[in-house]
Write a structure and sequence with these properties.
Length: 399
């Protein structure tokens, strides 16, 4: 925000004028020439008037720049050398002027009235972020009928909660956020070498520690699912290593913020609650119980996105065409699918903490699992079973 604009706002406050906040959409692009037109058009089509649209191309080597140039003065265009996503967001924010800033990945799109729904939430000057669920769409932009995250997104003043429990304990919508300039001026620029990818993690993990937030219940972002997406193309181990580096960094940042607020920080509790530290501990437990080279059935409701661990291969359960097929309709189908998978010669089963509910909901399935398997490990993060000799591997126990 410029010094002149701040003076105008202060003058307006003195005479009781209502100052309407302005908005900037910053599109960050790297080699998404086939998608970036959709992102730009969705930003330009916003029903809220006078939206600033900034396109930052981070050194693309495809046809992105040829696609972006024809928009001319309809957008603010920044062509820069490749520096990663964090660099693109830093540069875009430095060039922006909006009181509210929305970062949009170039492969995603906004619904036309997104900002019209978002902006009234910022009428409260204390709000630091507004967020909403994402609607999954396919590579062609057609709805897949699923929301991310699938659960309700908390809002309000969560500072006491997150100071107690720590970061990475709440499922935030990665690309479904609008930020107050007041917040971003406190936390940007972000470290660019660390956040070459996954830069939005830095933002949504820090935001709850700086002020209250609001939720728009309707999905305002169309989140495109495709295999060119960098995070989806990363192996589980590479992604986990990246997220642990992130967690080490933002934990240090927010612990200082808590101390500035006068809140005591229990770093051991934060680590125990952290999604990524818990997942890292679970991976170590799997390594200790399941020999390298083995396949194992993974019941995790697709939460872990674990494809392999070293030379161990994880098979989603229930599975269809190599992907998680969703919860079983009943015990009978769960048992039938389990037998079919076990007959591939798979001896081990891992149940993640997110899916402990399976053993309560599918009681006959749980009884069958315990009858044919030995419990090797049980803790708060996972259960590991190993098939008993003579069970249904290769056509054994059919009772």
């Amino acid at each position: 925000m410029s010094e002149t604009k701040e003076v105008v706002e202060r003058a307006g406050e003195k005479v009781g004028m209502k100052i309407t906040p302005s908005a900037s959409i910053i599109i960050n692009n790297y080699n998404y020439g086939r998608y970036v037109t959709n992102a730009i058009e969705s930003a330009l089509a916003q029903t809220l008037p006078d939206v600033e649209v900034i396109v930052v191309d981070d050194g693309s080597t495809d046809n992105s720049r040829e696609v972006i140039r024809p928009y001319g003065d309809r957008t603010v265009t920044i062509f820069k050398e490749n520096g990663g996503q964090g660099s693109a967001l830093n540069v875009g924010f430095a060039r922006s002027s909006g009181d509210v800033v929305l970062f949009l990945d170039a492969d995603d799109m906004l619904v036309a009235d997104a900002l019209e729904q978002i902006m009234p939430c910022f009428s409260d000057p204390e709000i630091v972020k507004v967020h909403w669920p994402l609607l999954k769409v396919d590579v062609h932009g057609r709805s897949l009928g699923e929301l991310l995250p699938p659960t309700e997104i908390p809002d309000g003043d969560l500072r006491a909660r997150v100071c107690c429990d720590g970061p990475s304990t709440i499922a935030w919508p990665g690309q479904g956020n609008a930020w107050s300039r007041k917040l971003l001026r406190q936390i940007l620029p972000m470290p660019e070498e660390l956040y070459r990818t996954g830069a939005d993690t830095y933002l949504f993990e820090l935001a709850p520690f700086f002020g209250p937030m609001k939720t728009v219940p309707e999905p305002l972002t169309l989140y495109r699912m495709h295999h060119e997406n960098f995070s989806r193309s990363m192996s589980f181990e590479r992604r986990m290593a990246r997220e642990l580096r992130f967690a080490d960094h933002y934990t240090a940042v927010v612990s200082k913020q808590c101390e500035a607020m006068g809140a005591k920080v229990d770093l051991a509790r934060w680590r125990a609650n952290s999604w990524w530290y818990r997942l890292s501990d679970a991976a170590d437990e799997i390594r200790s119980c399941i020999p390298d080279g083995e396949r194992f059935i993974l019941i995790d409701d697709a939460a872990w996105a674990m494809d392999a661990l070293d030379a161990r291969v994880a098979l989603p359960f229930p599975e269809q065409d190599g992907w998680y097929a969703g919860p079983s309709s009943d015990d009978e189908s769960a048992i039938a699918e389990f037998r079919r998978t076990r007959q591939l010669g798979i001896r081990f089963v891992v149940v993640a903490w997110q899916s402990f509910w399976w053993l309560d909901h599918y009681k006959a399935f749980a009884e069958y699992l315990y009858r044919t398997s030995t419990e090797r490990l049980r803790n708060e993060g996972l259960l590991i079973f190993q098939a008993k000799d003579g069970s249904d591997i290769g056509g054994g126990d059919r009772s």
